[in-house]
Every structure is written in structure tokens, then in C-alpha cells.
Design a protein that fits this description.
The chain is of the alpha+beta class and 437 residues long. Strand 14 and strand 15 form a beta hairpin. Helix 1 crosses helix 11, helix 2 crosses helix 6 and helix 12 packs parallel to helix 15. 43% of the residues are buried. It contains 15 helices and 23 strands. It has two domains: 332 residues, 2-Layer Sandwich (BirA Bifunctional Protein, domain 2), CATH 3.30.930.10; 90 residues, Anticodon-binding domain (Rossmann fold), CATH 3.40.50. Strands 3, 7, 8, 9, 10, 11, 12, 13 and 16 form a nine-stranded mixed beta sheet that branches. The chain has a five-stranded mixed beta sheet with strand order 20-19-21-22-23, with helices on both faces. The site of magnesium ion (MG) has 3 residues, from strand 13.
Length: 437
């Protein structure tokens, strides 16, 4: 993409209502624009990152055996009345009445709807386990939308739902998602640790939040250091027994302040104890028959008898992740994108647009990096060098190649690594090889 043909409305001033780094940087870098409290437009740069995160989440869900579908944003209130959630959900639910006086709502989540789809589609245990997901906008009329897209009112969520014949089998589905989440966050270039979450009235040990450690996090986190350092499971067979991967993590202490158990934490060796702030980016949950019971979601069991299915739900905050990744990865000059989610693979800065040699080399780099699939952003504007450098730092692409008249005379361009700040003078060929190799 040529910068002169792109839409990148940067802000010079840091907006005063933005108090955390990710919110400031997303506004300054022209990634989002607020339209109403907690409701955002995703401008081209932000949209690109959002789509990259969404795609990684999708690939890891698919790999784990979940099947993608798409449910609507607007739901009928009827299903929510069946489960009793229409009244229980409270003022966070945006309620809408259509022209026929039908009560509708903008979905904050989809357990009720997916359970209805399931009960009318599946009659036999032989079709289980079933694991379905979608990636769809949600609306929650949060009391205090804040921190930009971190706590929005409209936000993009991946939500998966599992259906199993009994608790033991539901546990296997839960483990699938547990492992898929570890791989997902690792691919996104961040460390997210599974911490024990409140299982609610169901009890048991099957509710985990995945949190990214960052100073601006809303929850306090207490964890065993080894959990943070543990490598992701990687290429596992999702049809095999995954309890080894899960158990070795569950054995290490990790809880948010809500679930914190002082005595259990004290049993962790002192040099392994870690207290930090965390951002919740995912939540997985086994809820048994909470929805299937009131909605009559039954299948014929192996014994021929109608059996109420056991369910679980598994969320990832896709839009929140954009901000959370920035919280975990930025410096004084701007965002530092992990390569997997960077909006462009590299930047090209032409310091003297209109100069025959500079234009020729910059165009060559642009063509070759594009051809190699790196999706470069070419700064072909007539702005001053300083403006170009700070803009490139702000939007945080992994590499920037600078083409200037002085270097060209020596046959070199400068390659800067955004993360380390290291600069190297390289021939055009070597620069291309470095970025595409
Ligand atoms: P929180 O405790 O942060 O309010 P939650 O527990 O209500 O979140 P879940 O119902 O578990 O959220 O939703 C699944 C995921 O969706 C969360 O882990 C989070 O990443 C994301 N999410 C929830 N609420 C919001 C929001 N208001 N804005 C952006 N993302 C959100
Ligand atoms: Mg939650």
C-alpha cells in the first residue's frame, strides 16, 4: 500500500480522555474512531489488525475441531425468557422493540440461541460431541465503557459452545478449548496465562480466564512464575487425551483477586510467586445443564433414554485483544506489533520523493516485498524525514527500510528493527533477503 493512497488519519495530540497507553496509541495511530460511548469505527489500520487477530483465532478453533457458523446480532427475547435470563441479565442488555411490538435484543452472548439451534437439530448422542463457534459483534450496555475498545459496549467476540452427553465428555471438550487458547495467544505473540475463575453455581474446577499481564489490567493476578514461562502445547493431536497439557498448568497456582486463596499462594515457593495486573482476553466455562435443562435440549443416550446434554462456552475478546496486545507491546515511540498481527509486514521510507535514484530503489523494494507477500506500507509522501520516522515508529511495523540519497550513493539502504531499535546498512538485495528470508 502506498501511504498517499491510504487512509491514515493520525492525531498529533494525545486525547485527554484516553488514560491508558493502548487507547492513546490506537487514537493517535488512526486505528479507531469513537462514534458514541463505547462504540467505535475501525479505521483501515485498526481494521487490518482486527482481521489478522480474528483469522488466527479462527485457524486455531478449526484446528481444535470446532466448526464455524454465524448467528445474528439481533435476537428474539423469547429464548432468553425460556432460560430465565431475560430478566436476570439486567441493564447491560440492550432491548429493542420492532415495528410489530416484538421484543428483541442485541445479543450480549449466544448460549440461549445456540442451545435452541442444537435442540432442534440433534437427536442422538451419536452426533456428539459437537463444538460450534462464531465470531460476531456483541453488545453490552456497560455501566462504564472505558479504555477504548478494551471495554467497549459493542465489541467483537469469538464464542464457541460445546455439547456433550455427560460431564466426563464435556471435560474433554473443555480441554480442547483450553489447549487451543494457549496456542492462539502464543501465535498472537503474547503471554496469556490461564487463571482459575469463578465457576458460579455449578462449582467444580472448570472455569478459567486467560489473562495477559500488563500494568493497566483491571484485575490483580497471583501466579506461579513457571506458568508464565511455560511453552505452548503447539502441534498436538486434538483427538488424543489432552489432560497432560492441562493438568500440568492447573497444578500451578494462578488466580485473579476475586478467586485468590492466600493459604494456597503461600505454599508456592517465595521465588516463584508473582503478583501482577492482568487483562482478561478469554474465558472458558463448563456450565453443565444450565441452559439445556430449562430449554429441554436432550438427545437419545446410548441406553435409548432421553438425556439432557452438558454444555460449555468459550469466549475470546477479539476486539479487546487489539488493545491488550498494545498494552503488552509498546514503547515511548509507539506500538510494537508482534509480526503475526502487524497491519503491514514492513515500512518503506523514501526520504527524497522525486529523486530519480531514491524513487527507483524505493519502487524496487516495494515491488519485491509485495511480491514476497510481505504487504509493505510505502511512505511515498512529501513529508519531512523526521515526520516519516516518527509515524513509522508510532504505527509499529516490525521493520522499516529507509531509502535516502546518501545511502544510495554507497549502494545501501537502512533496515531498522522496531523491537530492538537496531539499524543495519544493507544492499537492496540483502535488505530484501533479511525481511523475506
Ligand atoms: P469482564 O469481566 O471483562 O467484564 P466478562 O467476564 O463479562 O468480561 P465474558 O462474558 O467472559 O466477559 O466474555 C468473553 C470475553 O469477551 C472476555 O474474556 C473479554 O475478552 C471479552 N469482553 C467482554 N466484555 C467486553 C467488553 N465490554 N469490551 C470488549 N471485550 C469484552
Ligand atoms: Mg469473563
Amino acid at each position: 500500500m502506498r501511504l498517499t493512497k491510504y487512509f491514515l488519519p493520525l492525531l498529533k495530540e494525545t486525547p485527554s480522555d484516553a488514560t491508558i497507553a493502548s487507547h492513546q496509541l490506537m487514537l493517535r495511530a488512526g486505528m479507531v474512531r469513537q462514534n458514541s460511548a463505547g462504540i467505535y469505527s475501525w479505521l483501515p489500520l485498526g481494521h487490518k489488525v482486527l482481521k489478522k487477530i480474528e483469522q488466527i483465532v479462527r485457524e486455531e478453533q478449526d484446528r481444535a475441531g470446532a466448526v464455524e457458523m454465524l448467528m445474528p446480532t439481533i435476537q428474539s427475547a423469547d429464548l432468553w425468557k425460556e432460560t430465565g435470563r431475560y430478566d436476570a441479565y439486567g441493564p447491560e442488555m440492550l432491548r429493542i422493540t420492532d415495528r410489530h411490538d416484538q421484543e428483541m435484543l442485541y445479543g450480549p452472548t449466544n448460549e440461549d440461541m445456540i442451545t435452541d439451534i442444537f435442540r432442534t437439530s440433534v437427536q442422538s448422542y451419536k452426533r456428539l460431541p459437537a463444538l460450534l463457534y462464531h465470531i460476531q459483534w456483541k453488545f453490552r450496555d456497560e455501566r462504564r465503557p472505558r479504555f477504548g475498545v478494551m471495554r467497549g459496549r459493542e465489541f467483537l467476540m469469538k464464542d464457541a459452545y460445546s455439547f456433550d452427553i455427560d460431564e466426563a465428555s464435556a471435560r474433554q471438550s473443555y480441554y480442547r478449548m483450553f489447549v487451543a487458547y494457549l496456542n492462539t495467544f502464543a501465535r498472537l505473540g503474547i503471554k496469556a496465562i490461564p487463571v482459575k475463575a469463578d465457576p458460579g453455581p455449578i462449582g467444580g474446577d472448570l472455569s478459567h480466564e486467560f489473562v495477559i499481564l500488563a500494568e493497566s489490567g483491571e484485575s490483580g493476578v497471583f501466579a506461579h512464575r513457571d506458568l508464565v514461562e511455560m511453552a505452548p502445547p503447539g502441534d498436538v493431536d486434538f483427538d488424543s487425551d489432552l489432560s497432560g497439557e492441562v493438568d500440568k498448568r492447573m497444578a500451578l497456582y494462578a488466580a485473579t483477586d476475586e478467586m485468590h486463596d492466600e493459604a494456597a499462594y503461600d505454599a508456592v515457593p517465595a521465588d516463584k510467586r508473582m503478583e501482577a495486573r492482568g487483562i482478561e482476553v478469554g474465558h472458558i466455562f463448563y456450565f453443565g445443564t444450565k441452559y439445556s435443562e430449562p430449554m429441554g435440549a436432550k438427545v437419545q443416550g446410548p441406553d435409548g433414554k432421553p438425556t439432557t446434554i452438558h454444555g460449555g462456552s468459550y469466549g475470546i475478546g477479539v476486539s479487546r485483544l487489539v488493545a491488550a496486545i498494545i498494552e503488552a507491546s509498546h514503547d515511548d515511540n509507539g506500538i510494537v506489533w508482534p509480526a503475526s498481527v502487524a497491519p503491514f509486514g514492513a515500512g518503506i521510507i523514501n526520504l527524497k520523493v522525486g529523486d530519480e535514484a531514491c524513487d527507483r530503489v524505493a519502487e524496487e523494494l516495494y515491488a519485491k516485498l509485495s511480491e514476497a507477500g510481505l504487504d509493505p506500507l510505502y511512505d511515498d509522501s512529501s513529508d519531512r524525514g523526521g515526520v516519516k520516522f516518527s509515524r513509522m515508529d508510532l504505527i509499529g511495523l516490525p521493520f522499516a527500510i529507509t531509502v535516502g540519497p546518501r545511502g544510495i550513493k554507497d549502494g545501501v539502504v537502512e533496515v531498522k528493527d522496531r523491537r530492538t531499535g537496531e539499524r543495519e546498512s544493507l544492499s537492496v538485495e540483502a535488505a530484501i533477503a533479511k525481511l523475506t528470508g
